[in-house]
Amino acid sequence: MFELKVHLACDAETGRWYIAESDIPGLWLEADSPSELVARIQAAAPEIVELNNDEIVSACLERAAKMKLPRPDCARPSIMPIFDSPLALAYA
C-alpha cells in the first residue's frame, strides 16, 4: 500500500478550506469546513484516482526509486489528508 497525500489549507480572507497540493492529479476542491472538504475528497478521489491511475502509479514507482525503497504495491493507494492550516477548536 502507498499513500497519496492531500494537503488542506484555509484561506485566511474567506475562511474557506481548499486543497493546496495533492498527489492526485486533478483533485482540486474547496469547502466551508475541513470536515466538509474531507467528505468531498472521499466522494471524488476514488474516481479521479481511477482515471489517473497510470500517472499515479508512475509517480509512486519514481518516488520509491528516488528514495531507494522496495517496490511498493501501487495498486492499493490510501489517501492521507494533511492539514497545512491549524484547525479551530470547533473542528478538533
What's the structural blueprint in terms of helices and strands?
Blueprint: E1 2-10, E2 17-22, E3 30-31, H1 34-51, H2 53-66, E4 77-83
Parallel strand pairs: 1-4
Antiparallel strand pairs: 1-2, 2-3
Overview of this protein structure:
- The protein is of the alpha+beta class.
- The chain has one domain: TTHA1013/TTHA0281-like.
- 35% of the residues lie in helices and 26% in strands.
- It contains 2 helices and 4 strands, in the order E-E-E-H-H-E.
- The chain has helices spanning 34-51, 53-66; strands at 2-10, 17-22, 30-31, 77-83.
- Strands 3-2-1-4 form a 4-stranded mixed beta sheet, covered by helices on one side.
- A hairpin with a 6-residue loop joins strand 1 and strand 2 (17-22).
- The protein is elongated and about 40 Å long.
- The relative contact order is 0.26.
Question: Which labels suit this protein?
Answer:
2 helices, elongated, 92 residues, 26% strand, alpha+beta
Total helices: the number is 2
Note the main sheet: 4 strands, mixed
Distance between the termini: 28 Å
Question: Whole-number radius of gyration?
Answer: 14 Å
- Strand composition percent: 25-35%
> How many beta-strand segments?
4
Shape: elongated
Domain count: 1
Strand order of the largest sheet: 3-2-1-4
Q: Which spans have pLDDT < 50 for at least 5 consecutive residues?
A: none
Class by SSE composition: alpha+beta
What is the chain-wise order of helices and strands?
A: EEEHHE
Which CATH first-tier class would you pick?
Alpha Beta
Would you give the CATH topology? Answer: TTHA1013/TTHA0281-like
Helix percentage: 25-40%
Chain oligomer state = single chain
CATH architecture: 2-Layer Sandwich
* CATH homologous superfamily placement: TTHA1013-like
Whole-number mean pLDDT: 87
